[in-house]
Amino acid sequence: MFRIKRRRTLIRLLSFITAGFAVTIGLAITGFWMSYGLRMNIEYSYERSLSELSDHVDNINLSLEKAQYAGTNAQIIGIASQIRTESVAAKTDLSQIAISDVNFENTSKFISQAGDYANSLSSSLALNQKLSEGDRKNLGSLYDNSKKLSLQLSDILSDVQSGKITLFKSERALENLDKSKTQPVSTVQSGFQSIEDNISGLPTLIYDGPFSDNVLKKQPEYTKGKVTVSRDAARKAAAQFLGVDAKSVTDNAETAGNLPTYNFKAGTKDIYVSKSGGLIVRMLDSRSPVSSKLDYKAATLKVDAFLKRQKIDSMAQTYFLTNNNICVINCAFVKQDVICYTDLIKVGIALDTGEVISFDATGFIMNHKNRKFPAISVKQKTAQAKLNPSLTVKKVSLALIPRDGTREALCYEFKCTAEKGKKNIIDYFNVTNGVEEQILILSQTPGGTLAM
Fold first, then answer.
1. Which of 189, 215, 241, 366 is deepest in the core (most CB within 10 A)?
2. How many angstroms separate the CA atoms of 247 and 236, rounded?
3. Domain coordinates of the chain in residue numbers?
4. Cα–Cα separations (whole angstroms), residue 256 to 225, 259, 272
């Protein structure tokens, strides 16, 4: 009797112990996953802040580079405003990256000084004071440091995004550093510490060509006054554009918004036709070219022939980008020797067959209209005299560029070089008031020209 009771007691005790052990393990596992989830949320938050910090510093760097070539107070004041805005945003991101063993004093100080100096410079220039040689040296020093910081942040972000390192892995690497007596290959801490050690403060920024993506949120100019067409009429327009029978063009829903379209499919091609006027807005072939038998020059001839077939006149080829065996060439409308960067058509040529593999007339349809250009009130020589003295003018043209909102500006387009031909700069001066409207820094890549 007593044996039976003792046995039951023992069984109950073992059951309680087993249950308790299971509960403990369950709580431990739950705690682990909760902790892991928390750590991953922090990881993602850090990575986002690091990415945004890198973007803001890149923008500061680009603005400081443009400041090297600006020739007027108004342009430098505008650039200084951009630097101040990016500086505030960069400091906010930096404050959200809490990494142990790293004091961000130098990095934070530099970002603050860049914003403060831009603010001070803007105030003095607003009083019509000229940019001194000392100011230009300070801007040059800031640019050098911002470029260094931009590159280092880019390297750290690349390692984090590729999974080569994480913030938590680098924390553990530092914790084990004394035990292993070996230097970790790469850590966020070591990267930021390198920035801190190297950066110094003040002395004691397309493809697609300029403005090509300026598709404003407004009613399209080119479709104003045009009648609404039926889907069948739009289908015929699509078939004619593609050079196929209308029966092979099938329906593929519609697109709403400020430029509503009827959508169709024809084989591997998607094509969009505006409801107003039945204009071809976009066409994209999903086929992937397998090789590059043609070069850029051959692609330009294909574009010329295509535009002629489509009876699209008065277009000039400007910038291009080659990628994945496709060469996309920008064509801007030209009127009275003025190139209108606002009115843009992009044509993509497959470099294996030479066929048109993409077409985008969105910029043209959104902006093209019957314009009367303003009278030129400022002589070219007067505008050119305002150029930064470090720039060497290679070509001057007239260009229409978009500005803020719906405004456009007719400008002198000064294509220049700097630093003994190592840099290509385009500077735009308004022909009516002499204002320096925009500066672009061109960068040549294997695929084409980037304008920033």
1. 366
2. 9
3. 2-198, 231-367, 380-451
4. 18, 7, 11
Q: Which of 7 and 330 is assigned the larger pLDDT?
A: 330
Check: CB of residue 351 under 8 Å from CB of residue 322: yes
Compute how many other C-beta atoms are within 10 angstroms of the C-beta atom of residue 407: 8
Residues 6+ apart with CB under 8 A from 175: none
pLDDT digits (tens, 9 = 90+) for 248-292: 999 998 888 889 999 999 999 999 999 999 999 999 999 999 999
**Fold of domain 380-451:** Nuclear Transport Factor 2; Chain: A, (3.10.450)
Of the chain, the percentage scoring pLDDT greater than 90 comes to 44
Non-local CB neighbours of 218 within 8 Å, separated by 6+ positions: 258, 366, 406
pLDDT score, position 19: 55
What six digits make up the tokens of 259? 């430029």
- pLDDT value for 274: 97
The predicted structure's pLDDT at residue 66: 92
Is the distance from CB of 269 to CB of 255 less than 8 angstroms? no
Q: 21 vs 26, 29, 34, 35, 314, CA distance in Å?
A: 8, 12, 20, 20, 82
CA separation for the pair 179, 173 (Å, rounded): 10
Task: Please choose, from the candidates 152, 147, 156, 158, the residue with its C-alpha nearest in 3D space to the C-alpha of residue 187.
Answer: 156
Q: Is the pLDDT of residue 176 over 50?
A: no
Q: Answer whether residue 175 shows pLDDT above 60.
A: no
Contacts of 79 (CB under 8 A, 6+ apart): 63, 66, 67, 70, 118
Show the CA angle centred on residue 221, arms to residues 220 and 227, nearest 5°: 80
* SS3 call for 8: helix
